[in-house]
Amino acid sequence: MGYESFSRLSTAQLAKHIRGLARDTANVVFTLHVKQRMLEREVTNTEVLQCLRGGTMRRAPETNERMGALECRMERQVLQRELACIVALCDEDPSLIIVTVFERSR
Q1: How many H-runs (helices) and E-runs (strands) does the chain carry?
Q2: Is the pLDDT of residue 58 over 70?
Q3: Residue 105 CA, distance from chain mean position
Q4: What is the residue-wise DSSP string for 48-80?
Q5: Which of 21, 59, 61, 94 has the fewest CB atoms within 10 Å, counting from its CB?
């Protein structure tokens, strides 16, 4: 797995790419880890999708060499909570792989 094509994009371009793909739920993959965190933190699929579809990236993406992916943090206020979703992007998989979700401290 690699992420070379994504590493050439700006933060704004990556956020636009994520928002666009998230419009279709078929493009969003929820890992077992994120499903566990969602239950633990009482976050719904709808809230995650809202975060992805309307969120912003306030931090630079980080590489995950072990997984061969570029990880982006999308943030958005959803139902009175500041949510953050970590999304993995890799060249070989056109999907958005949701790694984790948490409530961001203000």
Answers
A1: 4, 5
A2: yes
A3: 18
A4: HHHHHHH-B--S--EEETTTTEEEEEEEEEETT
A5: 94
pTM exceeds 0.85 = yes
- Of 3.30.565.10, 3.30.2310.40, 3.30.70.1350, 3.40.50.970, which CATH number belongs to 4-103? 3.30.2310.40
For residues 25 and 47, what is the distance between their CA atoms, to the nearest angstrom?
A: 13
Could you report the per-residue pLDDT of 4-30, keeping only the tens digit for each? Answer: 888 889 999 999 999 999 999 999 999
Give φ, ψ of 92 to 5 degrees: -80, -15
